[in-house]
């Protein structure tokens, strides 16, 4: 062990387990790539103001959890705590929204950072795959994103997840509701912190998990009763489209999410096998965000799915992904001359696209065969001086133990044939 350890709240992805993470990223992005979403990558840090304005000054993410710092040049930056604000910033900066081809549909995959209290499923460095559809107000777009996330989870073999759905209203009806909710909350027995939250962002009080608060919330005005006709109609269409697509969801009037920018459709994917950190993904519509960060009006919708928690959900359901072994062929040279000859064969096999590894470090036969078995390879190529004198190598099937001599110039073809 070295003197150093991974920082608190982080962990390393190591083989063979790390292959599952790659497969999860692949599975989440596949439906997006298949639906007109283009890949975008943005820096790991941004101007801190982008998140303060975009995510919201009063949110936990901005007030407590952001890794913010000042550079030697005096810039105030923050490690990105989420993806949407950065993606929208990048799209606006590159004028992707101009030229009439809306919505701009983008997907991303990367690391995010929040200074949270670490526990299982909650880390300070975590990984998300996300999607944003920028510049269109269309219930079919909201439905599309929810359907694609559902498809992604199902393609991984997950079954025990639920989709929670709500509408947060728009700039017409939300302020009316907000005022009514504030009136109600100001009559409750709340601590100073929560009272401040009532002033700044009362909807988030509905999301308070403490029993002392929860029990006082019975009878709170419901947002659903305040939605304007346009929001109601919009939400109804989203629901109809999901139902028509066979995607089941639950209406959850308390789903407000922890970010300020959401309007209308909000949704969360929760998994019942994960304990308290049950949200595996979430998202919604953010019609006002572009204007909040200095852009034009661009109604948009998006989601981010957590890779770490999706892996935990797979474990909770006992799903093992069918990941092919990294190595198909393992070469074992016996002696100096065999090393040279087999190394050339290894290079040729790799060029032919066959995943091949080599017993490095002058291992003896026994140790080398152990490594071959551990690598998951189906075939071993073994050669000693006598084989080379005859111009052959031994091709050993590691499953059946069967062994055949193959002429040196036929190795690639024979390996390909045997692997099928
Ligand atoms: P949010 O932007 O908070 O809705 O996060 C979207 C998804 O990212 C969540 O549903 C989680 O799966 C994942 N996520 C958020 N924060 C963390 C964290 N601290 N550790 C692990 N995963 C997280």
Would you report the number of β strands? 16
Report the sheet with the most strands, covering strand number, pairing sense and barrel closure: 8 strands, mixed
Count of helical stretches: 15
Overall outline: elongated
Helix fraction bin: 25-40%
Q: Approximately what portion of the residues adopt beta-strand conformation?
A: 15-25%
User: What distance lies between the first and last C-alpha atoms, to the nearest angstrom?
Assistant: 42 Å
CATH architecture annotation name of the largest domain: 2-Layer Sandwich
**Compute the gyration radius: what is it?**
27 Å
The assembly state of the depicted protein chains is single chain
Low-confidence stretches: none
Fourth-level CATH superfamily of the largest domain: Bira Bifunctional Protein, Domain 2
CATH topology of the largest domain: BirA Bifunctional Protein, domain 2
Q: Class of the largest domain, according to the CATH hierarchy?
A: Alpha Beta
Mean pLDDT: 95
Unique ligands: adenosine monophosphate
What is the number of independent domains? Answer: 2
Assign the structural class, choosing from mainly alpha, mainly beta, alpha/beta, alpha+beta, or little secondary structure. Answer: alpha+beta
Spatial strand sequence of the major β-sheet: 1-5-6-11-10-9-7-8
